[in-house]
Each structure stands twice: as C-alpha cells, then as structure tokens.
Amino acid sequence: KTNMLGFSNHAALIQTHIEGEEFVVNTVSCAGVHKLCELWRYSRYKTTSGHNIYNTAHVIDFDREQHTDIVNYAMKVLEALGIQYGPAHVEIIKNENGCYLIELGARLMGANLPFSLLSRCISTPQAILSIESFINPVGFRNKLQTRYQIFQPITVIFMVSNQNGVIRKINFIDKIRKLKSFFDIKLAVKIGSELKATVDYQTSPGMIYLTHADRHIIESDKKIIRKIEQDMFELAPLNMYLDRVLA
To answer: Rounded to whole angstroms, how far apart are CA atoms 218 and 225?
Structure first.
C-alpha cells in the first residue's frame, strides 16, 4: 500500500491496543543532554462507525505530580534510541498500568503548527531551541534548568467530516475567522477536491488553531466550530463528478 508520504509499505508492525490518555513530549537534545520544550495532550472520540479519531490537541503546563513519569519515560526512550542532537517528538499513552510508547520522531512536532503561534504562546518553542542547540550550545545548556511556561493557551481542532463527495462550495470561513480566539485555519481540501468522511488523521478536512488568555472563550469558540463544520462543505455527488471527468 502507498502511504501518505508516497512510499510503498511492504511490512506492518503490530502493537497491542492500549487505552489511556495520549501525550506528546517535545524535546531538544545537545551532546546527549535533553531539554523538555513542550508538553501536549490529545483528545479523541469514537465516531458512529467505530473509528477513534483525533478531536483536539492542547499544550499543557508541566505538573510534577501528574507528568513527571511521562517526561522521565520520554527521556529514557531518547536514551534507548540514541538521540544525541536536535529535536524529538515523543508520543506516549498513559493509563493505570504506566506509560507506553506510540512512536518517536527525530523531528519537530507537525509542520502544520504555525511557528508564530508557538513562539507567541510558549517560552521554549521547540524550533527555536533546536536552532540554539546547534549554533549556541552554551546558551542552550544554560536553559536546561529553565522550566517552560505557557504564556497563553493553545487548542488545535482537528476538523471532522461525515460526508463523501466533491466540494463545490466552502461556507463559514469568515465566521470562523471572526471568533475571538481564532489564530489560523489550514484546510487540507479545496473547491473541486474530494471530501471523505473522517476515519483518521489523513481524512480530516483541516485544522483550526485557537488561542486566547481566557480558556472559556476557546471552549466556547470550539463549540461553535463543531456546530457549523458539518455544513461548511457543500458537495456534489461523487458519481456525478466522476461521470463528468470520464466523459
């Protein structure tokens, strides 16, 4: 099967299904010394078809009682995999039995995240510390004991579609842009492209980024988005589109 990067998969790795809270630990390393940059928590929900899809992602404050085991586990994974330099993105599930590794990417967290949003809202954004670790290792080491701070909450909304068809019109973009906590929207679809019912990350129509000093405003705006998103895309039936193309 061809994967989302355009390469062919010739094997599959099977893992035990694990229920629990999903966290992301973003780090930067320099000469084998690791720095926590950001801590994120994902939320998911099950669709009526039984698919467990992403709902939101939030950057969260580090709490020693709640998160020390998660961060320590991530650091052990970095050591086990020989990460010595640069950024790492560690996805972990935690439940009553402990922490479990989903994956580690020796890279920055997703390219879809606006850099200007992270630099505004987080004291130690991963991209900036990555650059500093290479061009100013002494300055980087001086920040190792500095606890990261969240200047303003961030919520990422993974858009959800329950429709299949070809997009002929996109509604409510202006309404979404006028929300008090709106920062940016990145659509993965456009007029004339195919919209699929969301069953995973790859079939999400896009992402919406919210930030505001008042978390209640973010939550209120999120509810508005969830209420209108199913009417955002006006579709032509897929078979009508295919008939036109094949003709």
So the answer is: 11
CB under 8 Å, gap of 24 or more: what pairs does 101-108 form?
101/73, 101/77, 102/22, 104/77, 104/78, 108/26
pLDDT-derived band at 56 (thresholds 50, 70, 90) equals very high
Residue 130 CB-density burial (10 A; 0-12 exposed, 13-18 middle, 19+ buried): buried
CA 150 to chain centre: 17
Beta bridge partners of residue 34, listed in sequence order: 29
Q: What local confidence, expressed as pLDDT, does residue 228 receive?
A: 95
The mean pLDDT of the chain is 92
* Per-position DSSP letters for the chain, written without gaps between them: -B-TTSPBP----------SEEEEEEEEEETTEEEEEEEEEEEEEE-TTS-EEEEEEEE----HHHHHHHHHHHHHHHHHTT--SEEEEEEEEEETTEEEEEEEESS-S-TTS-HHHHHHHBSS-HHHHHHHHHH-HHHHHHTTTPPP-BSS-EEEEE------EEEEEE--HHHHHTSTTEEEEEES--TTSEE---SSGGG--EEEEEE-S-HHHHHHHHHHHHHHGGGSEEEE-HHHHHHHHH-
Structure tokens at 148: 């990261």
Instruction: Tell me the pLDDT band of 240, cut-offs 50, 70 and 90.
Output: low
Report d(CA 41, CA 31) in Å as an integer: 28
The residue that leads in pLDDT, 190 or 50, is: 190
Q: What is the mean pLDDT of residues 3-15?
A: 88
Q: Among all chains, which residue has been given the structure tokens 């052990």?
A: 76
| Sequence letter at residue 106 | A
Structure tokens, 157: 């909304």
